[in-house]
Amino acid sequence: MDPSSPWLISFPEINTNGKCIFFNPINNQTYETSIPELSHSKILFANYGWLLMIPDYNKIPFLFQLVTRKKILLPEIDFVWSAMSFTCSPNSSDCLVTGLSIVSGMCNVFVHKLGDGDLGGWNEYSISLPDGFDLGLTGYVPAFYKGKYYCLDRNGNLYIFDPTEVIARDIYRLNPNDGIPIFDICPKGGSSAYQIFMLENEGDLLAIFITKCKRIVHVYKWDESALRFCLVENLGNNMLFISNGAVFSKNAVARATGNRIYFPHFFDRKGPYASYSLATKSYHSFYGGYSQTNSYGLRELHMAFWFSLDQCQ
């Protein structure tokens, strides 16, 4: 496995034997293996070389290090989660595993500190959300940035909280004047965002919006001092890897691979991989000369996540 390039790892929807398919978008390399520890489980989040998984047959989530195959069982959960993640490498005793459960305008935040062991259980906090707060986005995971979680919903509400002191929180209502024109694109089509992702890139917090109408991709940078998002038109030499539950940035590993966003998208049923270029505002293949301006018709792998060996901690 090439350690310099991230790999897209996908599972079958019903994973009875831990089958995994590894795909490298840069050199178009694919290989298949089996990891029995991941059978009958679904991925919720991935970072630092670790996976946060939930079995199909019980409510006991676990952390799994893909390279060493180390497994850490977490306390059983008795809540319906909207999103789950962890704050740093699970090798650290300071790692916090968090879960968000949003029901009827209330956000219940569940926090488990790995250093407390299984007896630590889940600490629960309840927070009242503003009217219309909507995180109903498949695979959405809040960004952990500078010690706080940032949750941006598709109606333009930004909710910020510290998982160690959940009572300290901020909620901002954003609007088109804040530099987010997507709310003007589909004024009669309900919620404007089809997908939202947030991640850190070179010390900045980025938000990626994919609109409900026309599937247009927008990239914004959060300005903490002005409490607003600013449009990003060029990522420079950076590559953004975006998937449900796993997002990160990386410096370009080869010529013409920077200033692109790497979603789990492919052209046609058996076509080549499709990356999104901010320079052309279109999807392109590295092989075969495929190109199109939006994601309609692209094949999206929903049971897949990006993984990079150099993230392992």
From TrEMBL:
<protein>
    <recommendedName>
        <fullName>KIB1-4 beta-propeller domain-containing protein</fullName>
    </recommendedName>
</protein>
<dbReference type="Pfam" id="PF03478">
    <property type="entry name" value="Beta-prop_KIB1-4"/>
</dbReference>
<feature type="domain" description="KIB1-4 beta-propeller">
    <location>
        <begin position="22"/>
        <end position="268"/>
    </location>
</feature>
<dbReference type="InterPro" id="IPR005174">
    <property type="entry name" value="KIB1-4_b-propeller"/>
</dbReference>
